[in-house]
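This week, work through this protein record:
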Amino acid sequence: MTERISNICRLEYAPVSAINTFIEASEGHLLIDASWTEIPIIPGATLSVRKSHTKAGRLYESSFSAMLRSKLDLHQIVIIRITLDKDETQYIIGDPDLPVRLDETVSIRQKPISFSHQSWHFPWIFAGEPEEVESEPDPEPEPEPEPDPVPLTISYELSEWESEPDFIDANVRIYANEVLKLEQFGNGTGTVNVFQGDTIRIQYSYLDIAEGSPESPFLQLLIDSVLIDSQPVSIPGTGTFNHSFEIDSNKEILVRAVDLG
């Protein structure tokens, strides 16, 4: 893989012997206390970083080339700081253990400078001098703990219609967040414990009944004495109905079979 960094506006070096502090502040970022000297380059310098895989791990080879404005004649081992004009990011190449050696060629018309450097990591990002690093901001306050859920109660009643020898069958299931909390077949009453904000689903149904006396049979759902739904009953036949809501207070639920004829 080759990553190309262009628009280099400044090239600087610091002799390894003059580096006072060289600390990895965070992954990929360095704090350096050193004296930097600018190398006079002509716009158009390039840096390419090639990554390869070796038996010892990943290897990054940085190759730099530029043209000088004047003769430099630098023979020290150094670390290099490269500044980009796009976002002023500064990259560091080399370290006290693996320094950089510059190659300078002098001719009548051109004064090129270049170097090649191998390392086990991508070029560092310069994070400033140790005293320039801002103190860590105060940690964010921990969020307030979620309040305990408010317990609520659903009181239910299931009522079938009966007129000897005939009756209208009725059944009910109550779900909280799609978890079955109650299953009632035939007449009965009771309570179901839930929590505020739960999604409640009332499923009410009837099964086959023999033909008989009901003239206008219905299956009804009432919540807090308010009629929510009224479904006609087919004789013979079956039917299943559902009603869902988010519970915010205690509720009274009645599922009943009636003859409205």
